[in-house]
Amino acid sequence: MRVPGRLFATEALVRAMDNKVFEQVRNVATLPGIVSASLAMPDAHWGYGFPIGGVAAFDEDGIVCMGGVGYDISCGVRLVRANIPRGEVSPKVLGRLADDLFTTIPAGLGSEGAIKVTEGRLEELLDQGARFVVEQGYGRSEDLPFIEELGSVPGADPSKVSAHAKRRQRSQLGTLGSGNHYLEVQQVDAIHDSTTARVLGLRAGELVISIHCGSRGLGHQIATDYQHTMAAATSSYGFTLPDRELVGAPLKSAEGLAYLGAMRAAINYALANRQVLTDLLRQSFERVLPEAELEVVYDVSHNTCKEEEHVVDGHRQRLWVHRKGATRALGPGWPHHPSAYESIGQPVFIGGSMGTSSYVLAGTSEGMRRSFGSACHGAGRALSRTAAKQRFRGDQVVRELAAQGILVRSHSVRGVAEEAPGAYKDVGEVVAAVEAAGLSTTVARLLPVISVKG
């Protein structure tokens, strides 16, 4: 180990973690160029190379590691406020909204959207991200300041994306996908930090919408392609690795630069994807609940490698921060915050499951020092998908949630079983651990009202 391993969690959460998490934290600590520590968030569980919930920063003499980003590149959450109290929406209207969202939002394994991006314009999309689709009429220009990187991460290189990866995205723009991805209408149940909530426009009792998805088949294929490229690079540069899933390449190498260019293109695709879904969301609300005014609160990813400046041992350094199932949670004053949010830390969204709370957090100055401005991204799985299917029945989960006033619309009963609330850790305990560690502050708790899943 070149640096220590550090976990942020309660004792109970640590004891519940699979031993593979500790092994992976240790393995990441051996990588060339790693700075300060190999980190894991309280929702950490076993992943590919890095633990899910893993964070590691590398200096310019270090490597970029595909396992530190994962296969669902730039999976993330966008929060949209509806500016309408739930109490003003009848159960009948909520039912109509649930049905309309289910038919409007393409979801499920292999789902296809109505938007077809030609090969020539795909290069522009991968280079410009959400800005490109806004120019095509999907959403509003005022959405862009409230998306990380203003909707378009610099340094994307579409030429480094394989033809196969580009083909895989065909008809997938504006789709949720499957697995743990969802669109959820939620109620702001409790305000924990009234000052920050006021800045974000969050008010108790009002409706908000979370969109959780990533770069779909394009991002997955980029990861698959570069897993092979990185394996060859690891061998040619003479790296000795404790785990073959930690293959990587020097940041300044041809292979490293190619992966960064392709990965950034996938980030832009994910940001564009969530932008198109926001446009579809507005269309659905306009049909069913036209008095609502849908405004983007923020959009942030949790599977990325970002070039950032951080202070390490009193010195400011340029670092490449890998966050795998961990959310960027920058503190107040970060230069790329929306101007409206200058006084607060970056918004962070922690998703629960269909029957549990989700949370809005804000980054802190302490988190900048302790975790490179990073926080958790969800509750973290307590059961594997196979174990969840053995324990829960999807149709029964839907009925139980309906009895609690939560409307679930899904294309897959099996998928509901895999994502049952009981398959996840206690999200409240995870959030409390992040706050106790000083990585973020809790702003608001959200409760599910409608959940649309693949």
Quick summary:
The protein is of the alpha+beta class and 454 residues long. It is built from 14 helices and 17 strands. The chain is 34% helix and 25% strand.
List the SSEs and their pairings.
Layout: E1 5-7, H1 11-16, H2 19-28, E2 34-45, E3 52-58, E4 63-65, E5 76-85, H3 91-104, H4 119-128, H5 130-135, H6 163-168, E6 182-191, H7 194-200, E7 206-213, H8 216-236, E8 248-250, H9 254-288, E9 295-301, E10 303-312, E11 315-324, E12 327-328, E13 347-350, E14 358-363, H10 365-371, E15 374-375, H11 385-391, H12 394-403, E16 407-410, H13 413-418, H14 427-436, E17 440-453
Parallel strand pairs: 1-2, 16-17
Antiparallel strand pairs: 2-3, 3-11, 4-8, 5-7, 5-9, 6-7, 6-17, 10-11, 12-15, 13-14, 14-17
Structure write-up:
This protein has a single domain, classed as tRNA-splicing ligase RtcB. It is built from 14 helices and 17 strands. The mean pLDDT is 95. It is an alpha+beta fold.
Please report which band the strand proportion falls in: under 5%, 5-15%, 15-25%, 25-35%, 35-45% or over 45%: 25-35%
- Terminus-to-terminus distance: 41 Å
Number of strands: 17
Number of helices: 14
- Quickly give the structural class: alpha+beta
Keywords:
tRNA-splicing ligase RtcB, eight-stranded mixed sheet, globular, 25% strand, five-stranded mixed sheet, alpha+beta
